[in-house]
Amino acid sequence: MSRPRFDKLDPARQQRLFDNAAEEFGDKGYDGASLNRILERSGMSKSSLYYYFDDKADLFTTLVERSVGFMLREIGGFDPADLTAETYWSEMEALYRRSVGMMNKSTWYVKMGRMFYRLRGDPKKSAPTGRLFQAARHWVGVIVARGQELGVVRRDLPDSLLIDSAMGLGEALDRWIVAHWDDYSPDERLQMAEQHIGLFRALLAPPVAPAAD
After folding, report:
1. Fewer CB within 10 Å, N side or C side of the chain?
2. Which CATH number belongs to the domain containing residue 147 in this structure?
3. Whole domain around residue 65: which residue ranges?
């Protein structure tokens, strides 16, 4: 993973590197992207890059992580502590819809998603992608725990199973969305928010007790 020393690099140089990396990966794809071109445009040497990152996959995953962070800042999130039983699922749906809306405006995120999952599917290069999933798993755990407090998430299964199941569904939806993005109009993509959050709700909501005879 990117080393802590990278955070001490001048912010302008950090931004220049990520801007050029984003352009290169976006234009050439992961496999076609050239570290030499990224470095030349960024005014960095290869030894400098390896001082901060393990390899090309590490640079790309760090770029994705920062992009996800930027997206969340732009669309706005929510504080789980502010959720209520009445707003829990509607807030999830609203966040999903805002995310899709931003992707509608900038398909760059879709390109990054496609490359990310191709990288994740390569056993030789996938290790850095685990960082993002660890962070996502923590966030899902917080959301599940808050839902249980509010009585809108089931408690009859182990928490680890609920979290793993939600993560599995989330990854399946992510992969499907970036693979089929071009098959749908912007409005159709937005309409998916209700359907996809409905899948999470069906998975996580407390089971309905059978009606009494």
Report:
1. C
2. 1.10.357.10
3. 57-204
Roughly what angle, to the nearest 10 degrees, separates helices 56-75 and 129-150?
A: 30
Is residue 107 very low, low, confident or very high in pLDDT (cuts 50, 70, 90)?
A: confident
Are residues 64 and 25 both part of a single domain?
A: no
Tokens of 125: 């290069």
Domain identity same for 100 and 151: yes
Judge if 12 and 116 occupy the same domain: no
Q: How many domains does the chain have?
A: 2
Residue type, 70: F
Q: Are residues 132 and 63 in contact, defined by beta-carbon separation less than 8 angstroms?
A: no
Distances (CA, A) of 67 to 21, 106, 113, 114, 192: 12, 12, 11, 14, 22
Q: What is the pLDDT of residues 190-213, one digit of tens each?
A: 999 999 999 999 999 999 866 655
Report pTM.
0.85
